Amino acid sequence: MTHDQDPEILLEAFTQAIQIKPHNALLYIERGILYARKQMYAEALADFDQALALDPHNANAYYNRGVAHDAVRDHEQAIADYTHSLHYAPDNASAYYNRGMALHELHRLEEALEDYTQAIRCDPDYVVAYYNRGNLYASQQNYDQAIENYSEALRRDPDAVVIITNRGNAYMMLDRYDEALADYTRALQLAPDDPSTNFNIGALFVNRGEAEKALPYFEKAAQQGNQRAAEYAAQLRQSSGTSSKWWRFWN
């Protein structure tokens, strides 16, 4: 039996199995995971609670209860659950990462950084851990460290558009325009319909003092539905391209 099967059939099967074996914690965990996937979080939490009542040292039950608490934005309880899970399974990279994300949501940044780092120690190829550690560094205006983490993520997932874009943004904040343009150009190749990329390239040219090159990118972004791009294209036309260094005010 796998979770790729029809979830309703699986739910019924696990419910029947629980009726036969009501003291089997694993069955409650599996049904709880199914409930969570259906966004039935109250039912999922009840099943994880029951699993832990039957098996108080079950790392998987704590972990999945943490995921469910995160889903309902109860990050404090999620952190407590991930901490319990890690006590019993200290090499679970996902538990460190998820706890880091919950801490990040609560702006407990140093603790989040430690957890992202620990997740990477457990799994050196954990792409999203590098990515979110990069985001955390960027939020602290530590752009060099952000770039380093985005680059590590891209070595493992070279076509991740959001990571390419965020690295380009970090390069922009350091006025490293050639590297930013290379990233934005790559992002545009991978996702040509994303208006934010055309907008970013326009902003780069304005910052670099080449406003005359920015206008077509703003116009393209405006055609793709970016209202800010339409406003800035109009401004550029009115100012004949004399405006500069807008990026710091836009972002």
Give an overview in words.
With 251 residues, the chain is mainly α. Among the domains are: 1-88, Tetratricopeptide repeat domain (Serine Threonine Protein Phosphatase 5, Tetratricopeptide repeat, Alpha Horseshoe); 193-251, no CATH class. Helices cover 76% and strands 0% of the residues. It has 15 helices and no strands. It has helices spanning 7-20, 25-37, 41-54, 59-71, 75-88, 93-105, 109-122, 127-139, 143-156, 161-173, 177-190, 195-207, 211-223, 227-239, 247-250. The relative contact order is 0.05. The model is unreliable at 247-251 (pLDDT under 50).
Q: What can be said about this structure in brief?
A:
It comes from candidate division KSB3 bacterium. The chain has helices spanning 7-20, 25-37, 41-54, 59-71, 75-88, 93-105, 109-122, 127-139, 143-156, 161-173, 177-190, 195-207, 211-223, 227-239, 247-250. The chain has 251 residues and is an all-alpha fold.
Question: What's the structural blueprint in terms of helices and strands?
Answer:
Elements: H1 7-20, H2 25-37, H3 41-54, H4 59-71, H5 75-88, H6 93-105, H7 109-122, H8 127-139, H9 143-156, H10 161-173, H11 177-190, H12 195-207, H13 211-223, H14 227-239, H15 247-250
Helix pairs in contact: 1-2, 2-3, 2-4, 3-4, 4-5, 5-6, 6-7, 7-8, 8-9, 9-10, 10-11, 11-12, 12-13, 13-14
